[in-house]
Amino acid sequence: MRAAVLKEYRQPLAIEEVPDPEVPRDGVVLKVIACGVCRSDWHGWVGEHPRVKPGQIGGHEYCGEVIAAGPDAQYAVGDRLVAPFILSCGTCPQCRSGASNTCLDQRLPGFVEPGAFAEYVAVPRDHNLARLPEGLSPTVAAGLGCRVTTSWHALTDRAALKGGEWLAVHGTGGIGLSAALLGKALGARVVVVDVVQEKLDHALSLGIDAAVMAGDDVGARIKDLTGGGAHVSVEALGIPATVNGSLQCLRPLGRHVQVGLPTGHTARMEVDMSAVYQGNLALFGTRGMPAWRYPSLLSMITSGAVDMSPMIAREVGLSDVSAELAAFDGPTTPPGVAIVTDFAA
């Protein structure tokens, strides 16, 4: 099969013919229909993701059609499925408690095992997968495995966002834009923050209530705009400036949700703990979403309560992934996300 392989950090991925994946006993092999290019893939490409090593086939936001199923699989050839990027075991204490996104024995295609920047991907533990609903575009569905699911879990489970509350979103890349759109669908008033005016304008065109250019006084400006500060703030980049801006924009008893991945040189950072102390703030970490929560998210989308299609900026070929990864180096990435849909190009 054709795949994009990491050979050296920060170098173009090698488009190679590699062996087709073996069929997992408890899972399936998917013919990949669509796969998102995510900032987490960039962290691996630059060498700052601790799990991603040379030789890796990336790609963890995917949907596809089953072409082979193992003897213990729950799905069959022809089924169209979407997958979370964390494949939980289903039996450890974390999984039994419902928090399968914190599974003690995770399988991670795209980070440790071969991912979906390829024509086919093996997916073990197919109890984590969900059927692609009729009428939902595979291109849109590809983003559900990481960006959209993580945002949904961050807002509804970790922060318990309520209708009428103010939600601030720091960073309007794929995960930030997802959080903003889902926040609006949940009835919140939403303000977004970014360093690129084009991205702010794009968010406003989608019905987001307010937009603020990032800067040293972003916390004060959001407090003024919202009449006291956001109730919930989502940090979607994982860098000190936006982490502290998120904390500083909250009203007393506000909830900060760390969605952006702090890794490599940002794994440890200086944080405004005075804002946490003075504001009696709550800080939540979040990563992924328990697979059993897929129906609640899919029903929001298929019912028309939220339209996630505006987050898709462009469809690209497999050989374009390197350029998309390199674009994450700066703040000039255009609004929306790229989805690989042509695995022959």
UniProtKB/TrEMBL annotation:
<dbReference type="InterPro" id="IPR002328">
    <property type="entry name" value="ADH_Zn_CS"/>
</dbReference>
<keyword id="KW-0560">Oxidoreductase</keyword>
<keyword id="KW-0862">Zinc</keyword>
<feature type="domain" description="Enoyl reductase (ER)">
    <location>
        <begin position="10"/>
        <end position="325"/>
    </location>
</feature>
<protein>
    <submittedName>
        <fullName>Alcohol dehydrogenase</fullName>
    </submittedName>
</protein>
<dbReference type="Pfam" id="PF00107">
    <property type="entry name" value="ADH_zinc_N"/>
</dbReference>
<dbReference type="GO" id="GO:0008270">
    <property type="term" value="F:zinc ion binding"/>
</dbReference>
<dbReference type="GO" id="GO:0016616">
    <property type="term" value="F:oxidoreductase activity, acting on the CH-OH group of donors, NAD or NADP as acceptor"/>
</dbReference>
<comment type="similarity">
    <text>Belongs to the zinc-containing alcohol dehydrogenase family.</text>
</comment>
<keyword id="KW-0479">Metal-binding</keyword>
<dbReference type="InterPro" id="IPR050129">
    <property type="entry name" value="Zn_alcohol_dh"/>
</dbReference>
<dbReference type="Pfam" id="PF08240">
    <property type="entry name" value="ADH_N"/>
</dbReference>
<dbReference type="InterPro" id="IPR013149">
    <property type="entry name" value="ADH-like_C"/>
</dbReference>
<dbReference type="InterPro" id="IPR020843">
    <property type="entry name" value="ER"/>
</dbReference>
<dbReference type="InterPro" id="IPR013154">
    <property type="entry name" value="ADH-like_N"/>
</dbReference>
<dbReference type="InterPro" id="IPR036291">
    <property type="entry name" value="NAD(P)-bd_dom_sf"/>
</dbReference>
<dbReference type="InterPro" id="IPR011032">
    <property type="entry name" value="GroES-like_sf"/>
</dbReference>
